[in-house]
Specification:
It is a single chain. The chain is an alpha/beta fold and 236 residues long. It has a single domain, classed as Rossmann fold, CATH 3.40.50. The chain is 40% helix and 18% strand. It has a seven-stranded parallel β-sheet, with helices on both faces. α4 links the parallel β4 and β5. α1 packs parallel to α2 and α3 packs parallel to α4. The model has no long low-confidence stretch (mean pLDDT 96).
Length: 236
């Protein structure tokens, strides 16, 4: 129960890593407020958490839409007074092309979700954070080391790493820490789209890479900010 009495917001919580994070946080005692674009899958996650005695609520939300983000934030903060944790997990892959051949529509879609969506969610939740809060941005190895043909996804994750460091400095005086986690190769739908020939049985399951999320969300990580973690190399 490392997150007992804490309130956590998780974006992209309908599947994959986001779903696993929501379930684990609830099992650790947090009340979880969940959003994603697929309302039926969100309902399923929420009901599963509630059936195990956890606390959960959800709102179908497109994080690229400012109005929807504001409505989601209002719903979360009206149910619970104050936010302790934000996991910016929602993201899209886009096409795998070199930048010279990259479609503009894909570029705009990827940045709308992976950068602007994170900005909007973070911006509007910051005023509601309790002292000692934690923001966790879900990144990628291609946002830390240059790998050709990852297009807008890679550039967006480099931007996310920069946003993490900037926010860490800006929020230090408010005692809100900001860090990023690279999940690594995990058996998710996005991974399948990126590597269609890969055998998913060779990969970790989302539920197997959650210890660093719990660590950064809990009071064990007080004072740790502006750092980039790799989930599959994590050691306390």
């Amino acid at each position: 129960m490392k997150l007992k009495n804490k309130v956590a917001v998780v974006t992209g919580a309908s599947r994959g890593v986001g779903r696993a994070v929501a379930q684990r946080f609830a099992a650790e005692g947090a009340a979880v407020c969940l959003c994603a674009r697929n309302g039926e899958l969100l309902r399923s996650v929420s009901l599963e958490i509630l059936s195990h005695g956890g606390k959960a609520t959800f709102e179908q939300t497109d994080i690229t839409d400012e109005r929807q983000v504001l409505e989601f934030v209002a719903a979360c903060t009206s149910m619970w007074s104050g936010i302790d944790i934000l996991v910016n997990n929602a993201g899209v892959l886009g096409s795998r092309n070199e930048l010279a051949d990259y479609p503009l529509t894909d570029w705009q879609k990827v940045f709308a979700v992976n950068v602007t969506g994170v900005f909007l969610m973070t911006k509007y939740l910051i005023p509601h954070f309790n002292t000692g809060g934690s923001i966790i941005n879900v990144s990628s190895s291609v946002g830390r080391t240059v790998q050709p043909a990852w297009g807008a996804y890679a550039v967006s994750k480099f931007a996310l790493e920069g946003m993490t460091k900037l926010l860490a400095e800006e929020l230090r005086s408010r005692n809100i820490r900001v860090n990023s986690i690279n999940p690594g190769g995990v058996a998710t739908e996005m991974r399948r789209l990126a590597f269609p020939q890969e055998d998913p049985n060779t990969l970790r399951k989302p539920g197997e890479i959650l210890d660093p999320f719990v660590f950064l969300a809990s009071d064990e990580s007080l004072g740790i900010t502006g750092r980039a973690f790799d989930a599959q190399r994590f050691r306390v």
